[in-house]
Amino acid sequence: MTRVLYPGSFDPIHNGHLEIIETASRLFDHVVVAAMRNPQKGEPMFKLDERQQMLEDSVAHLDNVVVTMFASLVVDLARELEADFIVKGLRAVSDFESELQMAQMNHKISGVDTLFIPSASSHSFLASKLIREIHRFGGDVTAMVPPAVAKRLEEHKA
């Protein structure tokens, strides 16, 4: 049985993330999606427990996917979960450059390999940062996020 870990800040989860999760759920026996607080990305829009709930709602149709939160090194969580691989999504060449460096570092310190799943071109432009910015200025992002996230964003306006 192959278990993979898909880590990210997911602030918020968008359809590109969901595509990667759905692909991983078809390829692997067990997928753990882990939301984290990434201090490099500034102040989050949603608290970790809110992100966990949006993730859980968004992946409820996938029987082999579970959601958790973490505040440690990704490789420590991968070891704790006994994950066979870390999964990362790629949108563009720029993602590959940064993700490859992270994958090599993670492998060096833990021996855990990272597998890359490219996103479809229909999702390659999606980024949580852009969704947050569009939302803050009143733009409509409902077509870019799962329904549970669209609902939470609508509530977040109030």
Describe this structure in words.
The protein is an alpha/beta fold. The protein has one domain: Rossmann fold (3-Layer(aba) Sandwich), CATH 3.40.50.620. The protein has helices spanning 15-27, 48-58, 74-81, 93-110, 128-136, 147-157; strands at residues 3-8, 30-36, 65-70, 85-90, 113-118. It has a 5-stranded parallel β-sheet, with helices on both faces. The radius of gyration is 15 Å and the shape is globular. 35% of the residues are buried.
What's the arrangement of secondary structure elements?
Elements: E1 3-8, H1 15-27, E2 30-36, H2 48-58, E3 65-70, H3 74-81, E4 85-90, H4 93-110, E5 113-118, H5 128-136, H6 147-157
Parallel strand pairs: 1-2, 1-4, 2-3, 4-5
- Helix and strand content put the structural class at alpha/beta
CATH-defined architecture: 3-Layer(aba) Sandwich
Rg over CA atoms, rounded to whole Å, is 15 Å
Helical segment count? 6
Gross morphology is globular
Describe the largest sheet.
5 strands, parallel
Largest sheet, order of strands side by side? 3-2-1-4-5
Gap between N and C termini: 45 Å
The CATH superfamily name is HUPs
Along the chain, the helix and strand elements come as EHEHEHEHEHH
Helix content: 40-55%
Q: What is the CATH first-level class name?
A: Alpha Beta
SS elements, strand count: 5
Indicate how many domains the architecture comprises. 1
Instruction: Tell me the β content.
Output: 15-25%
Mean pLDDT: 93
From the 3D structure, determine the CATH topology.
Rossmann fold
**Low-pLDDT stretches:** none
